[in-house]
Amino acid sequence: MDDYAKIIYKGKTYKLPVVTGSEGEKAIDISTLRQKTGLITLDPGFANTGSCISSITFMSGEKGILRYRGIPVEELARHSTFTETAYLLINGVLPTRKELNRFSVLLNDNSLVHEDMQIFYQNFPRASHPMGILSSMVNALRSFYPELQTVEEEINKTVTRLLSKMRTLAAMSYKISMGHKVIYPRPDLPYCANFLNMMFDSPVKPYRTHKELVKALNVFWILHADHEQNCSTSAVRVVGSGRVNLYAAISAGIAALWGPLHGGANQAVIEMLSDIVKNNGDIDSVIKRAKDKNDPFRLMGFGHRVYKTYDPRAKIIKKTCDRVLKKLKIKDPLLDMAKELEERALTDDYFIEHNLYPNIDFYSGIILRAMGIPTNMFTVMFAIGRLPGWIAQWQESADDPKWRLSRPRQIYTGPTKSKYIPIDER
Ligand code: ACO
Q: Is residue 31 part of a domain?
C-alpha cells in the first residue's frame, strides 16, 4: 500500500488505501472501515463521498472542466451531433461513419411507440406535469416491450428503444396536451430535426425545420448528455442496483430530475425572469431575497454542488443563445434580463463569497423558448438529453463484477428501546 490515510480511533491506528483517478483525483477507500473499526462515515448530501469508480465523465469544479470519455464538451458542442455523442457515452469511443449510420438506422427502426400507449395520455388530468407523465410512460414501456432472450440482445435493444422512443413519447405528450393530432417520427429526418418536426408539424401548417435551431438543439442535448454522479444519475444507479429493468431505473432518474434544485431549475429560471420583467425589472428585490437566510427563495440557475467557477456548459449555452436569437431575429426580453441579473449577481459580495455562478439552466430556457418549446416541457428536454448519460452510467455499474446493492447506513437518533403502551393507557 503506497498511498494511504491513517485513522486513529481509541488509540488504534488503521491504514486505509488512497485510490487515484486518471486526472489525479484522490479518494480514501473506506470499504473496509466498518469491518475494521465499527465506524461508518456521515456525509449528508454525499458532498464528500465517491459512490463509484467511473470512466465516463470527468469534471473539475475548480477549473470548470467537463469531458465525456476524455473529449472536452466544448469540442463536442462544436463538431459533434447528439446522436454521435450518445454513441460515445454509451460505447466509450467515437463511432466510425459506418457505426454511426448503423446506430441512426436502429434509432429510426425503434422510433414508433405502441398505439395503445396513446390511450394512457388521454387519461392523465389536463394539468399534469409532463415530467410526471414521462416518468410513468417510460416505466410503462416494460409492459409493452417485455424482456428479451439474451442479456446482450436485451441491453442493445432496450438502449436503442429508450433513446428513440423517449423522444417520441415526449413529443406525443405535448401534442396530446394541446389536443392536436400526434405526428409520427419520420425516417428521413435525423434525431433532432425529427423531434422538432414531431413537436411542431401539423396537418394545417407544415413545419420547416430551421438549420440554426437543429444545431442549437444538438448543442443543448450534447451539453446535458452526462454530468457524472449528479442527483438523477445517482438515482438511476441506486435504483438499478436492486436489479430492476432499465426502463424502471430511467423512470426513477426522470423523477429525480424533475425537482427545482436539479433539472427543474430551467423552468424555474424562466418563471423567475418573467416575474422580474413583470415587476418592471426589479432586480434589487430578487437579489435581496436570494441573500435573505429567512427566505427559502434562491436565485434559480445559480450555484452548483461541484462547479465553484463558471459552469463550462453555461458559457456555451449563453453564446448559442446569442447566436440563435440574432440569426432568427428574435428579441427576447428575458435574455436581456438574464444578462443584467447575471452581471449584478457576479459583482455582489454574497455571490462572490459563496462562489455562485450561472449554471447550465440559467440560459438554456431562452434557447428552448426560441424553438417554441413550452416552459413546462423544459425539464423533459433536459431528460431526453441526459438519457445517454443515465444509460452509460447504468451499464457501467451493471458491467462491474463488484456491483452491489446500494444501501447506505445511518446514525440513529430516535428513542432507545421503549415499551409498547396499550391504547387505553396512553
Ligand atoms: N441563491 C442564493 N444562495 C445560494 C444559491 C442560490 N442559487 N445556491 C447556493 N446558495 C448559498 C446557500 O444559501 C448556502 O449559503 P450559506 O453557506 O451561507 O448557508 C451556500 O450557498 C451553499 O449552498 P448549498 O445549498 O449548501 O449548496 P449545494 O451544493 O447543496 O446546492 C444547488 C447546490 C442545489 C445547485 C444550489 O446552488 C441551488 O439551490 N441553486 C439554485 C437551483 C439551481 O439552479 N439548480 C440547478 C443546478 S444545475 C443542475 O442540477 C442541472
A: no
